[in-house]
Design brief:
This is Beta/gamma crystallin 'Greek key' domain-containing protein. With 155 residues, this protein is mainly beta. It has 2 helices and 10 strands, in the order H-E-E-E-E-E-E-E-H-E-E-E. The strands form 2 sheets. A 6-stranded antiparallel beta sheet has the order 1-5-10-7-8-2. It is globular.
Amino acid sequence: MRFTAPIAAIILGATAFPSNAIARDETGPANIPAPVQTTVEHAPVVDGAEPFVVDAAPSLAKRGTLIVEVWQGFFRGERHESLSTQTQTCYNLGNGWSDVISSLSVPNGFGCDFYENGNCGKNGGKQLNVGGGGYVDRLDKYAMNDAITSYRCYN
């Protein structure tokens, strides 16, 4: 009984200090499937094609699995994550990755659309299309640096 009050005071005191760290769970997923999935039409994948921005969400057909590589810094710098991805699935970025990506790559044989808003642009916003084998070293070239919140890939 005598030790209960000091222990409670220590616990309460430790939780009273604010944390300035980015809230992220190192064990949580970096990509989270969006609650609503939609199917849209999309152009065929052209490996090595130049990334481009479009206004409308694309459609997808076949399923596949791929790894999308993302970095927090330009030229594959700083923090890195390999996002295990199913095609035709919209992913919202989690675990501290939303609005911090500065460079990325998409493997050959697949293409991905990266969206400024969650749920793969369901509420509008910019969209960046990156074709198969595409590596974008600086997303600021497309006005998408630190702006990607969700993505969807296709094959």
